[in-house]
Amino acid sequence: MRVLTKVVLAAVVLPVALGSMNAFAGNQKGQNRDEQRPMCQRHDERGMFRSLNLTSDQQNKLRALRQGQRAQRQARMQGFRQEMDKLLLAKNFDDKAAQALAQKMVNDQVDRRVAMMRQRHEMLSILTPEQKTQWHKMSQEKRTPCLDERGHAGYGKGHGKGNGPGFMDDE
User: Fold this and answer.
1) Residues 50/63, Cβ–Cβ less than 8 Å
2) Dihedral in degrees, nearest 10, Cα atoms 45, 48, 52, 57
3) More confident residue, 140 or 24
4) Which positions ≥6 away from 160 have C-beta within 8 Å?
């Protein structure tokens, strides 16, 4: 009986101990990723606009555009969460309702992407021609290292290798 107790105890303690060591060690490749790739962050676009020496009028217009889109986006997402909660908490799962909600969410994602492009167009229309040129230059400089780090949209080493050349190669 003692041997069985020791085996069960080892089976429980060993994975927990190894998992704890792994958590403390951290993922060396992914650790402090934001510090390693500051130009690849999503919110860097605001920094790009700040470096354009905007007038206070331009700053106010850009702020108003961002705030208007944020409120609309949050309202839509809250509606989707409520619909999903209703589905998940129902007594029986309704496949048709779940598929309809999933399709609605996909359609909304397409609409959001179009709205994002429209908003960016409106934001750029606030800029002077010189500021637009400067923004475009910074945008191109920002994209190049990010694409290289991601392995050109999935190919090569890195996250989401895809089926490109070298996807089976060991690191």
Assistant:
1) no
2) 30
3) 140
4) 150, 151, 154
* Distance between CA atoms of residues 110 and 42, nearest Å: 19
For residue range 80-127, list pLDDT tens digits in order: 999 999 999 999 999 999 999 999 999 999 998 998 899 889 988 988
DSSP designation for 140: H
On whether the CB atoms of residues 127 and 58 are closer than 8 A, the answer is yes
Asked if residue 168 has pLDDT above 80, the reply is no
Count the domains in the chain.
1
Question: How is residue 151 written in tokens?
Answer: 């392995």
d(CA 124, CA 131) in angstroms, rounded, equals 9
Domain extent, residue 124, equals 54-142
Q: How far is CA 145 from CA 2, 10, 19, 30, 32, in A?
A: 59, 47, 34, 17, 17
Residue 127 sits in a domain of what CATH number?
Answer: 1.20.120
pTM: 0.52
Distance CA 138, CA 44 (A): 11
